[in-house]
Description:
Layout: E1 11-12, H1 18-29, H2 38-51, E2 54-60, E3 66-72, H3 76-79, H4 83-95, E4 100-105, E5 119-127, H5 140-151, H6 159-180, H7 184-194, E6 197-198
Antiparallel strand pairs: 1-6, 2-3, 4-5
Amino acid sequence: MRTITNTFNVYSFEELSNEAKENAIDSFRYNNNYLSWQDEAINTIKKIAAAMNCNAEWYSYDGIKYYVSFTSKECEDIENLEGKRAYAYIVNNYLMPNKSYKTYWKDRCIYTDGRKNWKRKSNLFYSWDDCPFTGYYMDCCFIEAWKKWEKNFNKNSTVEDFIELVANNLAKDWTEDNESQMTDEYIIEMIETNEYEFFEDGRLCYNY
């Protein structure tokens, strides 16, 4: 029996040549398995769909750009509501059940040790801007859709229009987040934060 020992030189990202750095970055870019926040995005889509009593579907051809669609579980007549009836339905069935009561501090007092005075939630004043679904930033897709729908409101505005706006906003934010993780700057930051090491040609060293 013979034992053969191989010795490899490994490098930090900064120690690589420019060509090897490009190879390392491209390797991460075309391996979408490293993308972060995918579970959070999916969970947010599910929570918003459930709050709107909708079925949600999503798909992607490349793992980066996503398409999201919502379909109401209610009868088709609900989606086709127009004008003031659509406005009332959205407010009563989508917005009001998902409002967040505002929190405020009594007299805004802060003690010398840093503690704040007691807080309470208002029973009268509320907000739709406080990420009421999961706390992930994509919660805001819901209220942003409402603001756009309300701004362009007219007698032909429908519940279906609002549902589509919410789904499109979720797809847009999810895609933009993924695309931001494909930039050189993001990948380099991830490499350096995780202190990955590489072979001379830029191939990732898997702790041989």
